[in-house]
Design a protein that fits this description.
Length: 415
Amino acid sequence: MTLGKYVYRLATLAIENGGWMELDRLYLQNQILSEIGVTTPVSFEKGCELEASEIIDVLVEEARKHEKIHHAKEEVELRGKLYDLLTPPPAVFNAYFSQLYDKDPERAFQYLEKISYENQTLKEKAEPKYLETQLGQLMYTKTNGTYEENIPTENAKYPRCGLCFENEGYNVNGGAPFRYIRMNLQGESFGLRLVSYPLWNEHSLFVAQAHQTLMHSRKTVDQLLQLAYLFPGHFIACDSDLLVDSLRPQHVVYQGGKDDVPLLMRKEKATFTLRGYEEVDVAILDYPLTVCRLRAKEGATLLNLGTEMMQQWRTYDLENSPAFKENGSLNHSVMMVAQKEEEMMSLYLCFLASDTPYALHLAQGLGVAAIHGSLIQEEMNELRMALENSDPFQQNPRWIDEWMQHLDNRLERGE
């Protein structure tokens, strides 16, 4: 296939994504040729039906032939520039998302997912599986990313962290195609984007534009409930504001999703009514952590009760476990999850104390484990080596391949 067909196809995909018009085709094609170092005439024509990622692989090899790139960092940056051309500019992206949202919020989310997957800011689809344990059902996801790739890092002056709006269009590590869907929550600017390596379906981030430390307040509860109202069926979760490994979350970010995470699926262990909040259904869930679920028709009622319970727990003095440490830092906090289903609003409060012997992150609190693909491969390699060194398998080496294939198949099925 000729180079012109690849370039024409990539320009077509960029136009179809809504960021460009047919009048921009020549401009787009010339931008692509310039990025890959082509200086000879090219005949642009139809005839290529490949996906964007396949075309960009071809164009990267073309750039290498023309000595436009020489090492891995340059390749990553080139990919970022090409994927950025595929992605509508922020104003256009936000306007189109808003148009779709007014018709159907789920269609708008599907558009965000489509563009994010095509421009590789969403690098893989989540395929969660479930496992029965003595403590109940656990969700786990095989991923090629790491938890740290989804949280802030304070190792650069600009962008200040991996969540900041400053990443939008900034082509470091191929980050140029990142886009945020803007929204206003109680007078504060937030942006929506998808997690690059999701742990559950439609795993999203709602990121505050201001780079500030997470500290729970009434506003936190209000913002969670507002997001749950804006995206019905999705759960919206907030990490605790405890110090973990001597650090508190350095950027306000909420995580969302549309999946049956274990915390939301557990049965009630006890139900009761609180004086002054008779319209709220209160339940303690049968869960390894202490979780209280509040459910009502009115979000304002949940806001008042949820805030009161959060503040009461923050200063609650357990025997031999003071609410504050000697250095004045918090010892008690909550993870919170909000969700709107049909006419009912729910708010889950997971009560935590920092004097527990382990650090608990949000995904773990939801009952979700991330299993890194490289760890699985390392363990499988160790198992193969152990089998090869055992007497029966040394005598029958073909058994090893049969056993390993059997284990791979079971792993894929989630057994």
